[in-house]
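User: Sequence in, structure out. Go.
Assistant: Echoing your sequence, followed by the structure tokens.
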Amino acid sequence: MTLLRRSASLLVWLLIAVAAFGFATTEAVAEVVSKYGAWQLGPQAPYSPVAEQTIEFWNVLLVIIILIAVFVLGLMAYVCVRFKASNNPTPTKTTHNTLIEVLWTAVPVLILVVIAVPSFKLLYFMDHAVDPEMTIKVNGQQWSWNYEYPDDAVSFDSLLLEPDEIKDGQTYLLDVDNPLVLPVGKRVQILLASDNVMHSFFVPSLMLQIYTTPGRTNETWVQVTEPGTFYGQCNQICGTGHSYMPIVIKALSEADYAAWLKKAKVEFAMDGTVRPVQMAVARQPGQVTMPVSDR
């Protein structure tokens, strides 16, 4: 029994240490705005209602998973010690146990119900925008993004910055020339489509991840809670330039957004013409020449 207690105690402390490290890592990266930190294990800090609820659900699942892991590993350790040859010279011949069979059926079902209820609530919450205050259209291209503000007749391409265009504080493969600009606190409906192949619009700190599909318009929504810059990537392999499709969302205060929009209506005014579909051309292994813009 001494060996069993020591094994169980060691197992419990080990799992507690792993769980504590996971929570500590999640807390530590909360200071990093929308970018993954070195050795990050947890999700990015949330900056939208959907992201906040998703992280809460993630934390609940983490606790449930740890409890299940502790129980299963503890049970396995007990069985290994209790029923090894030296402790159990005469093999047990038990074939069934009604109570145990009922428990190992009912308890997993109960756990699944506990997980399913908040999961479905979250799915419905993140599905469609309720009373959106503005609409943004996102169009996936090979290999860049086009953003359109239909209510304000504004449209522009967002292209990856080339290495010689990177300024201090910017990151190659993450920063773009024209970010998607949104006002803080407003519920924004996002309609997504694609000119060519399937892409995926993925911004982890806002918990945005939705496909852009040719011939189909998908919908999601976001309400950014704080000013800042939030980074993402295309999350669906879409060709040779897949890794060159960063997403940058810049959230501004209402006054700053109004000032930006005033300039954007001049710089990115829609003229009613059909926007041509431009393809990136491979130049070297691992590099692409991005679509030409009028920047």
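User: And one key feature?
Assistant: The mean pLDDT is 82.
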